[in-house]
UniProtKB/TrEMBL annotation:
Keywords linked to the UniProt accession: Membrane, Signal, Transmembrane, Transmembrane helix
Highest taxon in the source lineage: Bacteria
Keyword Methyltransferase included in the entry's annotation: no
Organism taxonomic ancestry: Bacteria, Bacillati, Actinomycetota, Actinomycetes, Micrococcales
Name of protein: Uncharacterized protein
Stretches that traverse the bilayer: 339-358, 370-391, 397-418, 425-445, 465-486, 498-517, 523-541, 548-568, 605-626, 647-680
Organism for this UniProt entry: Brachybacterium phenoliresistens
Signal peptide coordinates: 1-35
């Protein structure tokens, strides 16, 4: 009876500790406050929206586009993701997004996307309605004159019944397409004509726009937005092709997609940001409709993905917008070569460690362990590479390679010269600690370095712009469990092993889930069961079904609590945790689950090779849990030397596949966890069996 009581106290204490962790996580969040440097003064309502497509910050200069530069000098600026539901977005899709707040076109969106069809025109609720005008024709003067005449003369007067004017200034072919320079010149001419018609002055090309304060293009205009709403014009830039051909990729589009121009004359000299991105100088097209409504004191539906744009003080807003644009564009070509230039050494190390004939040679095996242990260091260094403006270099790929190597070399020295180098288990655990610690630290400090970084937030993809993305989460759980393998190997008692698991689990969970840090909704659904299961396994308690069910229920309860507390914050400060509550309250829980499952499936089967990787990962998950039956003698020897080894593998397998099930891009999560274990587990394995006497040298 006494033994039974003691065995029950352990899981009870574990559950109590996890509950305390959850309470500290949700109750310890700081009270909501405006970000430092964010513009808080009241602004007039938006009265004019200028629409184009294909325009990037690389196109706007005082020499080539004086009118557009003049507008930029009197506005807050941002680089904008204009992605749509199709492979490539065109202006017609973007114009629908401006009105509905959802990615267009709704009529062509898959049902699982959750986009309302038929779409709802959110701007129809404006007191004065919307006046749509098209100045993209050969004679824009009459249309521009009509637009100016519809604008209110006095922002401080009673103008609630004045319409918001949406003026199409014409499209620009995508970067690299024929006729682009002429189209940009024509666009600038129309913008200049608008300023002149409103009573303003456009400086000469290359002239001083606002140097002495005598020229301000925005002074004659009400609060104005200029947004480039698509990557391609409606004709796709290809004579005779339909927009649908370009959008779906049936026709090869000339040029390439880049972040688009967004500016707001409400507060000059600042950077645009929003609750959607949490990044200075980056906004999303879906933020425009909520911004227009908010400027008129009207709320957008809580389920709309966008958030009202805000302005934040930065040293040079246009330089920042240009940096965001160039980094997002050049990262696509530079990311893989830069990471592989360093991480590729891991392949050499794995060959040495996994080929028995090579692994039996002590000196060569030591080199293999060093190479394999150093390979993952490219991940945290790559994530922080955005701190260095490598994209400004004449050869950005070489510059990024240099940044990766300059950052990874000191970490490699720390790894290979520290006291942990004396054991192979210590070497693997130290490498894992650097990887997990680097990723978690970046998120805990506000995700300030992810933009423009390999493995970081990809502004052109339009996924997460902050916090722990699924691929990073996979790396974190893979690295943290390898770290726990090393820590548990050094613990002499079950209590010590449990303490190590709970300590690491607490840090990882807090950073991954906290709305102001990782803001990863699905991570707690995987982390609490994973670390809870591991703590139970290393404690020596016999695992019961109610243990597993209890951990699952606890995870759901904690996630719900965090989401509700995030939902209680102001709408413009919520993360997707809080917006999930809005979906539940609107009765869309089923649609959200269906969309997540659909996106997960489409990614798994739609990306070449990813489905195969998932199948391989599933097979490996089974094999590593039965090493003797699979003939993995070295792994079986590791289990003999480190009893917690199998428990850790059970936990990572459970955590990775649970994460796969509850996330919309679960395949990349599994890939990240698998990558960490494939590289670092061989570092910790004992030497292969001697062909002569069957001896096993552990030297862990």
């Amino acid at each position: 009876m006494h033994a039974t009581s003691r065995s029950l106290r352990r899981p009870a204490a574990l559950l109590a500790l996890l509950l305390a962790l959850g309470a500290a996580l949700v109750l310890g969040q700081p009270s909501p406050a405006r970000a430092e440097g964010e513009h808080t003064a009241p602004l007039p309502p938006i009265r004019l929206v200028l629409v184009t497509s294909g325009l990037t910050w690389q196109d706007i200069t005082a020499e080539d586009t004086p009118a557009l530069q003049c507008l930029a000098d009197g506005a807050s600026l941002g680089a904008m993701n204009a992605a749509s539901i199709t492979e490539r977005s065109t202006q017609r899709q973007g114009e629908e997004t401006l009105r509905t707040g959802w990615r267009g076109l709704a009529a062509e969106a898959p049902r699982a996307a959750g986009i309302p069809d038929p779409p709802t025109d959110l701007l129809a609720q404006l007191p004065g309605g919307v006046l749509d005008l098209d100045a993209s024709g050969e004679d824009p003067a009459p249309v521009i004159a009509e637009a100016v005449s519809a604008l209110p003369a006095d922002e401080d007067g009673a103008v609630d019944d004045a319409p918001v004017v949406v003026l199409d200034l014409g499209s620009v072919p995508a970067t690299g397409a024929p006729g682009r320079e002429q189209a940009i010149a024509e666009l600038d001419s129309r913008a200049g004509a608008l300023v002149t018609a409103a009573g303003g002055t456009v400086p000469p090309a290359g002239g001083d726009v606002t140097g002495d304060g005598s020229v301000d293009c925005t002074a004659s205009l009400p609060r104005t937005l200029l947004v480039s709403a698509g990557y391609f014009p409606d004709d796709g830039g290809v004579p005779g092709s339909a927009p649908r051909d370009v959008e779906t990729g049936a026709v090869e589009a000339p040029g390439r997609t880049m972040l688009q121009v967004a500016l707001d004359t409400g507060a000059p000299g600042m950077a645009l940001t929003s609750g959607s991105t949490h990044q200075s100088g980056v906004v999303i097209l879906t933020d425009v409709a909520p911004s227009i409504l908010a400027s008129h004191g009207l709320p957008a539906p809580a389920t709309v993905p966008g958030q009202p744009m805000a302005m934040k003080a930065v040293p040079d807003a246009q330089r920042l917008a240009l940096d965001r644009t160039q980094a997002a564009d050049r990262l696509r070509q530079a990311e893989v070569p830069a990471l592989l230039s360093w991480a590729g050494m891991g392949a050499i190390g794995l060959v040495i460690l996994l080929v028995p004939r090579l692994a039996r040679r002590p000196r060569l095996a030591a080199v293999g362990r060093a190479l394999a242990a150093c390979a993952p260091l490219a991940a945290p260094v790559g994530l922080a590479a955005g701190a260095v403006p490598w994209w400004r270099a004449d050869h950005p790929t070489l510059a990024l390679i240099g940044v990766i190597w300059l950052g990874a070399l000191p970490l490699a020295a720390l790894l290979l010269l520290g006291p942990w180098r004396r054991s192979r288990m210590g070497l693997a655990a130290a490498s894992a600690a650097i990887v997990a610690g680097g990723i978690l630290l970046e998120s805990a400090t506000g995700s300030r370095l992810q933009m423009g970084s390999p493995l970081g937030a990809q502004a052109m993809i339009g996924g997460r712009y902050y916090g722990i993305s699924n691929h990073l989460f996979g790396l974190v759980i893979g690295a943290s469990t390898v770290l726990l393998l090393g820590l548990c190997a050094r613990a002499a008692t079950a209590r010590g092993r449990v303490a190590r698991v709970l300590a690491v689990g607490a840090v990882v969970t807090v950073v991954c889930v906290a709305p102001s840090m990782g803001a990863d909704f699905g991570s707690m659904l995987a982390l609490v069961p994973m670390f809870g299961l591991l703590a139970l396994l290393v404690s020596g308690i016999r695992l019961r079904p109610w243990h597993v069910l209890g951990l699952g229920a606890l995870a759901v309860a904690l996630v719900g609590t965090v989401a509700v507390l995030d939902w209680l914050r102001p709408s413009d400060q919520r993360t997707h945790l809080g917006r999930f509550v809005d979906s539940v309250l609107d009765g869309d829980l089923g649609a959200v689950i269906l969309r997540k499952l659909s996106e997960n499936w489409e990614m798994t089967v739609g990306i070449p090779g990813l489905g195969v990787l998932v199948v391989v990962a599933a097979a490996l998950s089974v094999v590593v849990l039965m090493p003797r039956r699979a003939g993995l003698q070295r792994l079986a020897a590791l289990d003999d030397a480190v009893p917690a080894s199998r428990a850790v593998r059970v936990a990572i397998v459970a955590g990775a596949w649970l994460g796969f099930a509850v996330n919309d891009t679960g395949a990349v999560l599994v890939a990240g966890a698998l990558a960490m274990w494939l590289v670092l587990l061989p570092v910790a394995l004992p030497d292969p069996t001697s062909a002569r006497d069957g001896a096993m040298r552990t030297a862990l």
